[in-house]
Amino acid sequence: MTSPELAPPSDQTERRRETADEEIVVPLRHYGRTTLAVFAVLLLLGIGYGLSTNPYIAWDVVGQYFVNGSILRGLGVTLQMTVLAMAIGLVLATVLAIMRLSESRVLNAIASAYVFFFRGIPMIVLLIFVGNLGLFVKEIVIGIPFTDIVFYQVSMQKVLTPFIASVIGLVLVASAYMSEIVRGGLLAVNRGQYQASKALGLNGGQTLRFVVLPQALRVIIPPLGNELVNTLKATALVSVIAGGDLLTIAQSISGVNYKVIEMLIVASIWYLLVIALWSIAQYFIERKTAER
Question: What is the recorded membrane topology of this protein (predicted)?
Answer without folding.
Answer: Multi-pass membrane protein
